[in-house]
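hiii, so i know i said id send this last week but things got crazy w the move. better late than never?? heres the sequnce for the chain we talked about at the cafe, plus the structure i predicted for it. fair warning i was half asleep when i ran it
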Amino acid sequence: MYDSHKPHPLLAQVPLTVSPFISLPSAVTLPYTYKSVPSTLPPSVTFDPSDPDAKSRYVVSASGGHSAHPEEILASCQSLEDHLKKMQADAEATIKEWEESVKQRELAEKRRVAPGWLDREEKLLQPNQASSSRGPSRQSQQPSLLDSQSTDQSTSRTPAMQPRDEGEELDRAFGGLNVK
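okay and structure toks below
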């Protein structure tokens, strides 16, 4: 066993010298206004003894007018995020409804112009012969101008067009040059 009051035999052989460059610490003098720290801490200012189940609101705003618990702040941020996501989903749904209504209006306009074109797989339109309610006899109907094969200009209802000769028109306007 080693006695703690006696120096160690090896250390006792080392001579000690005092260095002029090392100064030993001196005792600190306390000011007159010094108060000792109490041995017990005072009760917490964030804890409400009247409501022990309430969480302490120790996050205080810069103005000091509002305080909250971090869980309350996280809950309000989560509710704000949920609200923003719902608003974004509603806005996207509104835009999709609007785009669909525009497509439906364009489709209705195309169907008005070419009925039946968009409703079938085959894309060949064939005119249907309009059937008369009087019967299939064509002799009672007047022939169409497009169906007539008449070459007589007097029986035609439209004026006949005569072929134009630009050379003759120029000769009439400026006189003939008699070039042969």
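btw The first strand starts at residue 59 and ends at 60. thought thatd interest u
miss u guys!!
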